[in-house]
Design brief:
The chain is α+β, with helices and mostly antiparallel strands. Among the domains are: about 5-60, no CATH class; about 70-115. The chain has helices at about 45-50, 80-95, 100-115, 115-145, and strands spanning about 15-20, 25-35, 50-60. The chain has a three-stranded antiparallel β-sheet. Strand 1 (about 15-20) and strand 2 form a beta hairpin. Helix 2 runs antiparallel to helix 3. It is flat, with a radius of gyration of 27 Å. The chain starts with 12 loop residues before the first strand and ends with a helix. InterPro entries: Lipid_transp_b-sht_shell (IPR015819).
Length: about 140
């Protein structure tokens, strides 16, 4: 950059997203503001330097009051599989919210199909190696008797 060229500051980033969830009668908004120093140099460090803020707000939407709201987070390589099992149990118990659960099941099954094959094959190879070692120890114990 030449010394005569003035530094040009980028426009600040401002984004607001609001969503109402009619099934549980809640509405929420997320607001993000960011003004970074990337105009000095196009490097990751300069994107971090600056003023950044995020704000989330939840409010009750129009309709009956929410008596109870539960949130459960499933993480890990087998999280989708566990959630699919729970959805199957809920399907049998209660008919309400069926459309939501069907959509969730569709998303999770698609995600499960796209999971890397290496994790599935490594678990099956562990099972086969443990069964072969147990069968070899069984045959050696028969020979000593």
């Amino acid at each position: 950059m030449t010394p005569e060229a003035p530094l040009r500051a980028p426009a600040p980033f401002h984004k607001t997203l609001c969503l109402a969830v009619p099934y549980i009668e809640i509405k929420g908004c997320i607001e993000v503001n960011s003004h970074n120093a990337a105009f000095i140099k196009n490097a990751p460090l300069f994107y971090i330097i600056g003023q950044h803020s995020a704000r989330a707000a939840l409010a009750r939407a129009e309709g009956p009051a929410v008596e109870r709201l539960e949130l459960e987070v499933q993480v890990g390589p087998r999280a989708a599989e566990r959630l699919l099992k729970q959805i199957s149990l809920i399907d049998e118990e209660t008919p309400e919210g069926k459309a939501f659960l069907l959509k969730l099941r569709e998303i999770l099954e698609t995600e499960d199909k796209n999971a890397p094959v290496s994790s599935k094959s490594s678990s099956s190879s562990r099972i086969s190696s443990s069964s072969s070692s147990s069968s070899s120890s069984l045959s050696s114990s028969r020979m000593t008797e």
